[in-house]
């Protein structure tokens, strides 16, 4: 009889954790870490049986994303589960005695969000988001980020063509960072990939009017990369459902960026990781854009020396 593979069953595990500490509010990442600690067998099975997951960080991000996607169903099944409206969302267990108070707190959160929407938050430009994304990528994903300026690309067509060729931000991830030295040397001889290349398309907001254009812009300018994400600060009502449908077809992930606390940004939809880089596309891009050429030079440096390049323009200062 084949051995049964353990599963996480988040719809059961999350209520268990929240019920144990009814006065504590958990971020999705904190819940994911507890799940990892309490159910190591199921987590190991998920890690080894999912082609898109290769590291512990990938696993935690996937669990965080699944907690977010299953949240509505969990709340329908268990009315005691409450989630704050502000970002980052916090999950907690509301007893009947404090349900009224919890409802009032949620109303206050909504009021705060309304104030933000009406202009309390400083007005941001898309360019302001690049270093914030760089901080999130570095601290939470282990990715070194670099800006690609499409204006430096050869103008080979109509105005605006370059935005379909070059992403706003590219990233480099050393997947061997936690490996034993002997394993690194072994893999360096086999020719297998030791780095993962990322592509990010950044927008201030996604809504029903622009979501498809923005999404397919990301599809177009990220076809060369292992991992690709569409990044936005604001995602309008009903837009996430459309993004999930498009992502299932094209494998693009979605990140909601928190400009006030970048490390609390959330991967709402994980990307489908491609096993290889499209080097022919990279060749075309680097010939036409100096920023992209510099990016590939850094990747080459890593493969030549085994050392992670240190100079990246979107790294945090500390």
Provide an overview of this structure.
With 318 residues, the protein is of the alpha+beta class. Helix content is 47%, strand content 15%. The protein has eleven helices and nine strands. Strand 2 and strand 3 form a beta hairpin. The longest helix has 22 residues. The protein is globular and about 60 Å long. The N and C termini lie far apart (54 Å). About 7% of the residues have low confidence. This is HrgA protein. It comes from Palleronia abyssalis.
Task: List the SSEs and their pairings.
Blueprint: H1 10-20, E1 26-27, H2 28-38, H3 40-49, H4 56-77, E2 81-83, E3 90-93, H5 99-120, H6 126-141, E4 144-147, E5 169-174, H7 181-190, E6 195-206, H8 211-221, E7 227-235, H9 239-250, E8 253-256, E9 266-269, H10 279-288, H11 290-305
Parallel strand pairs: 6-7, 7-8
Antiparallel strand pairs: 1-3, 2-3, 4-5, 5-6, 8-9
Helix pairs in contact: 1-4, 2-4, 8-9, 10-11
Organism: Palleronia abyssalis
Protein name: HrgA protein
Biased composition (Acidic residues): 102-112
